């Protein structure tokens, strides 16, 4: 095991490990994307190896599909699975209502489809992702490449009509070229600083022609598991209102490092 696991990776690991305790044999699972979700895939793979857990996973990106396959997590398409028991994913920001900003890893479209097709969504995160108000993290909006500059102008006009003060919108780049998502689209990042009414903004953005989906996840997440670098985890359930404090052994087994991601 690498001795130099950073506090942030420890926090992500313990959140992932605690969330994977919700998985039961026979479940169909949505597998999120990002560095925290990668820990979840590793923890899940460990339970499959050690306990013979039988699950099917629907990955939310080509990256997650590759990681899951490499670790022996059975992968199926959403069309094969049709409906899922549970999705576990990361997030870029989480507010007190468990509304989220997602898409920092450019996978928001598949992530939202998969999470919405699940009985339950658990978000795993380090404590830095918890915010009083969404919006400091730029809001990703997935747009089709055709006419993207017009779509971006329409997004900006919409922000003016909503009296949004900070409305700088930038096309996400991958080096010198636009970043292309798994669904062959582009991402426009909205630098809003604060989002006063996330529900309204999400609805309005999705009405703009050329916008495929936005990174606001409203009323989708059920449980948030927040990890800390010392092994503490806080589990918050929006439906029951329960908050539980827990502690997870901080030592990932050697096997968990058999692959790397993100
Ligand atoms: O939404 C996502 C990918 O589209 C990720 O879940 C989000 O960006 C968090 O990533 P990380 O766990 O690496 O901080």
Automatic annotation (TrEMBL):
The active site is at 111 (proton acceptor). Keywords: Isomerase. Its EC number is 5.3.1.6. The keyword Isomerase applies. InterPro entries: NagB/RpiA_transferase-like, Ribose5P_isomerase_typA_subgr, Ribose5P_isomerase_type_A. The keyword Isomerase applies. GO terms for cellular component: cytosol. Transmembrane segments: none annotated. One of its GO terms (biological process) is D-ribose metabolic process. It catalyses: aldehydo-D-ribose 5-phosphate = D-ribulose 5-phosphate. Substrate binds at residues 33-36, 89-92, 102-105, 129. It holds the Pfam family Rib_5-P_isom_A. Signal peptide: none annotated. CDD domains: RPI_A. Homodimer. Catalyzes the reversible conversion of ribose-5-phosphate to ribulose 5-phosphate. PANTHER family: RIBOSE-5-PHOSPHATE ISOMERASE (PTHR11934:SF0). This is Ribose-5-phosphate isomerase A. It comes from Gemmobacter lutimaris.
